[in-house]
Amino acid sequence: MIRKIVFYPDPVLRKPAAPITEVTDEVRALAEDMIETMYDAQGVGLAAPQIGISQQLAVVDVSHDEECITYLRVNGEEATLDEICPLVFFNPELEMCGDKEGDTEGCLSFPDLRGDIIRPSEVKATLQTLDGETLVIETDGLFARAIQHETDHLFGKLFIDRMSSARKLAIKRQLKEMQAEYG
Ligand SMILES: [Zn+2]
Asked: What is the C-alpha to C-alpha distance for residues 116 and 106, in angstroms, rounded to an integer?
């Protein structure tokens, strides 16, 4: 079922989400809905707070472009994006590595808003899956960026927080318009 995406400045986007303590049928159904909602909105990631549910669950799929990363290791073994996406994870713990790198990002909770966001270029993510497994994913490129972006959502952090002061100033009017429309 496609869920309604909540837009900035909905307060749920600012609330640190609760860790998932048990994989119930409800959590599985939620994950399925999130994948469907992400594809429908043509996004590469979606976090549960973005559909109004304050739980540490997120989905990512960047498999449309195998070239968007230079490496991917899952539990120490080389893997392809095709094998791992759509990735559903909860209670993530991230270790950032690599140089900081800027790239354009968008966010489904900010329609029409894009910005250059500087983030560490590589990540080592320890993620829990619905099968009760712990996955350690090491990667770079768009996959590392998407995992960081979605994990930010789970802790109430938004990509606008990571924009440069100049960019923040430039989007001030757009944010005000969003506050008027969705606030
Ligand atoms: Zn987002």
From this structure: 9
Helix residue spans in 110-164 (DSSP H): 141-154
* Contacts (Cβ under 8 Å, ≥6 apart) of 177: none
- Residue predicted with more confidence, 183 or 153: 153
Q: Which of 131, 120, 114, 124 is nearest to 171 (CA)?
A: 114
Q: Give the distance (Å) from ligand 1 centre to CA of residue 148.
A: 10
Percent of the chain with pLDDT over 70: 100
Ligand 1 centre and the CA of 110: distance in Å? 8
Residue 136's pLDDT is what? 98
138 is catalytic: no
Could you give the domains of the chain? 11-182 (3.90.45.10)
Q: What are phi and psi of 17, to 5 degrees?
A: -80, 155
- Tell me what the mean pLDDT of segment 80-95 comes to: 98
Which of the residues 105, 122, 138, 150 is marked catalytic? 150
Task: Pick the closest to residue 150 from 178, 174, 119 (CA basis).
Answer: 119
Percent of the chain past pLDDT 90, that is, above it, reads 98
CB contact at 8 A, 127 and 143:
no
